[in-house]
Amino acid sequence: MATHPQQNLYSQLEHLQTKYVGTGHPDISRHDWCTNMARDSIATYLGHRSLVTLFATVEGESNGRIRYHLLEKLHSPYGESDEIVLTKKERLTQF
Predict the structure, then answer these.
(1) At a CB cut-off of 8 Å and minimum separation 6, what does 70 contact?
(2) What's the sign of the alpha-carbon dihedral 18, 82, 88, 26?
(3) Core-most of 8, 35, 60, 61, by most CB within 10 Å?
(4) Angle at 72 between CA 70 and CA 75, to 5 degrees
(5) 81 φ, ψ (degrees, to nearest 5)
(6) Does residue 31 contact residue 22 with C-beta atoms inside 8 Å?
(7) What pTM did the predictor assign?
(8) How far is it, in rounded angstroms, from Cα 78 to Cα 31?
(9) Nearest to 42 by CA among 67, 7, 74
């Protein structure tokens, strides 16, 4: 017999969340989610030379300098997190 489709969907989602950091989970902080999104975007920009060339043309800089700045941003696009990360259980018991 087959399992319920919804249960199968949740197990697949949990598998993806453990395999790939950027997919998030219910306890992810806003800062971590935004950082993952920014890193994904920057990695896309670096992977497409035409986008780097476009940014270089708009800013009046060389392609190498734009790549360097994007690589620097990739490390920590929004700085360090000031948030205290609480689990779902801790948030519920807070009130």
Answers:
(1) 42, 45, 46, 52
(2) negative
(3) 35
(4) 110
(5) -80, 135
(6) no
(7) 0.65
(8) 8
(9) 74
Cα separation, 45 vs 38, whole angstroms: 11
Would you kindly state where each structural domain of the chain is located, as residue ranges?
22-93
- Name the CA radius of gyration of the chain, rounded: 19
Residue spans of beta strands (DSSP E) within the chain: none
C-alpha dist (Å) from residue 95 to 79, 90, 92: 30, 9, 6
